[in-house]
Task: inverse folding
């Protein structure tokens, strides 16, 4: 399945594949470049899924240690973020569930969990609140594809690789997610 | 809301486009930046340096042919000597050998299941299928391994 390049957050022009090749030879500087390039995406994605900044930082560390253990001998066969996505998602879900269990046992302050996403400029707060409500009501697979496409900037092929589903399924989920937003009176205004 | 069938229908044949205002609102909702403390960076990079320190490719030294042949003979003799001596051996356990008894069997699957239930299976060595999470699939992996071993 074809993979297209994603935006990176590093000035280093070397592609991820070249960095992976260097890490396989034991180059820690290449690992640092790869880490700094994808760190912010990983921690923000983890925060979105786990719903807590502290958990997100734990997931960030666990994710890169998981990647580290793949070396030497790691072969990157698709975009690095497509490869990383399932690990971040699984670790974040596990962290969230563990925290919820601890919360049930009275070990964690309930206020630490289920934090609402931070608001930012650009849209009326109530409009964003309505959007958040509608998103919450979407089936998880549809919401996941919608956010991967329009928040994380994955293209359809990268989403298909990350979720291990056919590209037609990705298109279908995205189509249905947008249709649901268009039909819902709380979010219809975005389409007018 | 009911989930839709997972197939590509006519309406989804082209990539669905979202209005710019919606994309901006999604970004505002979920595009928040979590600051990463320096200590987290340092912890990850220290682990990387430690792990990769043992990965660096060994340098290759070329010996003259006669020296290489002599070294091979000496190595062969040394290996023969070592194999003929039956001193105490340090057991090398498979990752699936959860109970460390030198065998991979269904008891290891039960052992991991108990660890999972007790919440003590956090060591990533138990992530046997390498998907980043320790769960039932890792138990299944041990069970499959145990069955293969018994068949052999």
Result:
């Amino acid at each position: 399945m074809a993979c297209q390049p994603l935006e990176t957050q590093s000035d280093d022009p070397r592609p991820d594949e070249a960095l992976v090749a260097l890490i396989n030879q034991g180059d820690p500087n290449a690992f640092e470049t790869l880490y700094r390039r994808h760190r912010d995406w990983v921690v923000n994605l983890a925060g979105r899924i786990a719903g807590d900044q502290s958990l997100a930082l734990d997931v960030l560390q666990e994710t890169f240690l998981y990647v580290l253990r793949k070396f030497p001998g790691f072969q990157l066969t698709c975009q690095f973020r497509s490869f990383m996505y399932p690990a971040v998602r699984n670790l974040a879900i596990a962290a969230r569930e563990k925290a919820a269990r601890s919360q049930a046992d009275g070990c964690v302050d309930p206020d630490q969990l289920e934090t609402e996403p931070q608001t930012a400029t650009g849209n009326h707060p109530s409009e964003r609140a309505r959007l958040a409500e509608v998103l919450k009501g979407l089936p998880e697979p549809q919401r996941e594809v919608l956010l991967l496409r329009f928040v994380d900037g994955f293209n359809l092929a990268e989403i298909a690789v990350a979720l291990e589903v056919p590209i037609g399924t990705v298109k279908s989920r995205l189509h249905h997610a947008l249709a649901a937003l268009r039909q819902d009176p709380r979010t219809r205004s975005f389409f007018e | 809301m009911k989930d839709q069938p997972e197939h590509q229908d006519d309406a989804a044949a082209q990539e669905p486009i979202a209005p710019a205002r919606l994309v901006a609102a999604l970004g505002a909702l979920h595009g928040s930046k979590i600051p990463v403390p320096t200590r987290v960076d340092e912890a990850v990079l220290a682990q990387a340096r430690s792990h990769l320190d043992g990965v660096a490719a060994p340098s290759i030294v070329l010996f003259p042919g006669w020296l290489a042949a002599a070294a091979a003979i000496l190595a062969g003799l040394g290996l023969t000597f070592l194999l003929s001596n039956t001193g105490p051996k340090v057991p090398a356990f498979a990752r699936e050998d959860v109970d460390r008894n030198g065998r991979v069997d269904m008891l290891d699957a039960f052992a991991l299941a108990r660890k999972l239930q007790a919440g003590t299976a956090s060591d990533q060595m138990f992530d046997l299928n390498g998907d980043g999470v320790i769960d039932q699939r890792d138990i299944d992996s041990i069970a499959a391994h145990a069955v293969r071993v018994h068949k052999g």
Remarks:
- Residues 50 and 93 of chain A are 6 Å apart (CA to CA).
- The radius of gyration of chain A is 18 Å.
- Chain A has two domains: 8-115, 117-192.
